[in-house]
Amino acid sequence: MLSKLKRWSRRTQDPATPADACPAVEDIQENDDVSRFLCADVSEDVRRQALRTLFHKPKFNRRDGLDDYDEDYRLVHTGARIGPKRQA
């Protein structure tokens, strides 16, 4: 129990890490750990910018072929034009 109190006391007395201690968002690479940008003390703008930078990298910006709904389905093509021609 005493060790927990010592650790808690030490953690409360340590100064908080400044926002400048985080690396620049532009320097994020594909294999970097971005969990430091997902902490509660990081602003929403920095978090969003870090994730956007990460997902614009080629490793995460690849089409997987499962894009069945990417086509334009607003125009309905019926089979009326394909069927046999009727004699009038």
TrEMBL record:
Region (Disordered): 1-25
Residue stretches of biased makeup (Basic residues): 1-10
Protein name per the record: DUF3306 domain-containing protein
